[in-house]
Amino acid sequence: MTKSEHTKRFIIEKVAHIFNKKGAYGTSLSDITKATGLTKGAVYGNFQDKDTLAEACFDHNLKFFQKGLYKAIATQGNAWHKLEMVFAFYEEGFPFVYANGGCALMNSAVEADDGYPLLKQRTRSTFENWQKEMEGVIREGQTTGEFSRTANPTSIARLIIGGIEGAILVAKSTQDMDSFPKTLNHLKTIIEKELK
Length: 196
Hints:
Layout: H1 3-26, H2 29-36, H3 40-46, H4 50-73, H5 79-99, H6 104-113, H7 117-143, H8 153-174, H9 179-195
Helix pairs in contact: 1-2, 1-4, 1-6, 4-5, 4-7, 5-7, 5-8, 5-9, 6-7, 7-8, 8-9
């Protein structure tokens, strides 16, 4: 790793959680310099502008989500077990998500939807990929006879995503961490009934 790459990584690791909590608009240059201990020139010597840094922080924050999701889906077992592993990943990872300002994907999507075009397409494609992965697991269960063939994979995938993201939003907004696993368990029950 070159010195420049090391510095870029250092900056991202120091400020990614700030961007997640405050957003790209709300994160100031003074937030960045204070967190890193670097000068404005040092920051902008490594990133073209704040937008470029915001994108890099989005990618960094998203890695936690992507690794956990793909690990759950790639697990051995039947389709329902894979869905259970997705729910388990979110339940186990929720304290980390909560402490770091909520779901990076949701936070970025909300900010991007309000006129931040740089991240708008990135968040959209991430949600679309997540939906495709969930649809794939559901179709796998339909092929093996585990799930009803009349179940709509797209609708159920969207219900899973919306339910998880909504549970995070409510728990974070009300500062009630205990509400998340309760909502997640209820969502799991609903999904299981939908797939029978």
